Amino acid sequence: MSNTLLQVGTAAMQAGMQQAGQAAAEIAAVAKNNDASLNHSVVDLLQAEHQVKASAQLVKTADQMMGAMIDIFV
Q1: Residue 16 class from Cβ within 10 Å (0-12 exposed, 13-18 middle, 19+ buried)?
Q2: 27-66: string of b/e by CB count within 10 Å (b at 16+)?
Q3: Cα distances (angstroms) measured from residue 40 to each of 46, 47, 67
Q4: What is the pLDDT of residue 54?
Q5: Count of other CB atoms within 10 angstroms of residue 17
Q6: Which of 1, 31, 55, 66 could form an S-S bond across to 13 if both were Cys, CB 3.0 to 4.6 Å?
Q7: Are 20 and 55 in contact (CB under 8 A)?
Q8: How far apart are CA 39 and CA 29, in angstroms?
Q9: Tens-digit pLDDT profile for residues 11-68
Q10: Are 63 and 6 in contact (CB under 8 A)?
Q11: CA separation for the pair 35, 29 (Å, rounded)
C-alpha cells in the first residue's frame, strides 16, 4: 500500500514538474512575442506548483505511514 502511494506521489510530482517546465517555456515565449496568453501560462504554472506540493505531501505521508508500520512490527 505504501509503495503504491509512493509511486503515485512520485509520478504526480514528475507530471507537475513537466507541466511547470512547459508553462515556464510558454511564459518565456510570451515575453518574447508580446502575446496576450500570459494569463493562461501563469495559471498553468500555479497549477503545476500546487500539484507538486500536494504530491510531495502525499509522499511524505506515505513515508510516515511506512515508518509507523515498521515501528509497530519491530
Answers
A1: buried
A2: beebeeeeeeeeeebeebbeebeebbeebeebbeebeeee
A3: 10, 11, 41
A4: 93
A5: 14
A6: 55
A7: no
A8: 13
A9: 999 999 999 999 889 888 877 776 667 888 888 899 999 999 999 999 999 889 888 8
A10: yes
A11: 8
Residue in 22, 18, 15 with CA at minimum distance from that of residue 42: 22
Q: How far apart are CA 21 and CA 39, in angstroms?
A: 16
Residue type, 29: A
Q: What pLDDT is stored for residue 56 in this prediction?
A: 92
More confident residue, 55 or 71: 55
Sorted by sequence, the CB contacts under 8 Å of residue 12 that are 6+ apart come out as: 51, 52, 54, 55, 58
